[in-house]
Amino acid sequence: MRKIIIAIDGFSSCGKSTMAKALARNIGYLYFDSGAMYRAVALFCMKNELIKGDNIDKEALLACIKDINITFEVDPETKNSITFLNGKNVEHEIRSLEVSQFVSKIAAIDFVREEMVNRQREMGKAKGIVMDGRDIGTTVFPNAELKVFVTASAEVRAQRRYDELTARGDKADFNEILENVLQRDHIDQTREISPLKRADDALLLDNSNLTREEQMNWLIEQFNKLTQEC
Ligand code: CDP
To answer: What's the whole-model pTM score?
Structure first.
């Protein structure tokens, strides 16, 4: 069976990562979370005092961007991907609201995107991957064989993020999360470089009213159609 690249893009908190992870596990592909890379860079800036008030010290970040080491490992128990920043497990820390509030600004910086996109393309060289993000089908892998653009209403997405944070024992405020979701949508869609937009050849998936099982069946169907033909 031929190996392909699956690009899953869409709005924040619409369950892309969960969906992409489950799909990769089902079809035996590797999963890469491109958002985790931007989150790791954001955390790096927060930890290394590269943020002063609302401003990012871009010069200092540019000087060290190539040395920021971001790697993924699979948790042997849960089989989930864990993000490491310079050798340290930061999987929990990068999901905090503090990082979420800051990450879109980091992801809008040209040289940060350039560096991350190059690294992402390396990860896809051998194909057989599922990668999720904002610009995977448009910029990172414009020739990906299967592209899916996922969306859901802002309220549904905020509720999902709220449930995720409370389930892991973090404090959460629904309105604050909704505001963050809307703000990130705005920054992601209006930034100059690789704004979030549906690729012309991406399949649209609005999962506001779909169960995870219905969604998975639909994805597997699209995957089978592509890999079993010719
Ligand atoms: O999980 P969620 O969809 O909320 O976000 P994420 O995938 O973890 O990505 C965090 C942030 O990184 C997004 O809000 C985008 O600003 C940025 N991002 C991006 O610009 N390009 C990507 N390929 C992935 C994420």
So the answer is: 0.90
pLDDT score at 54: 83
Q: Which domain holds residue 107?
A: 5-224
Q: Indicate which CATH number applies to the domain containing 139.
A: 3.40.50.300
Residue pair 26/6 in contact (Cβ under 8 Å)? The answer is no
Between CA 181 and CA 142 the distance in angstroms is: 26
Does residue 230 lie within any of the structural domains?
Answer: no
The answer to whether residue 76 sits within a structural domain is yes
Pocket of ligand 1 (CB under 6 A): 12-13, 16-17, 34-35, 38-39, 103-104, 107, 133-136, 184, 188
Q: Which of 229, 184, 193 is nearest to 117 (CA)?
A: 193
- 73-98 pLDDT, tens digit per residue, is 988 888 888 999 999 999 999 999 89
Q: What is the pLDDT of residues 6-47, one digit of tens each?
A: 999 999 888 898 899 999 999 999 999 999 999 999 999 999
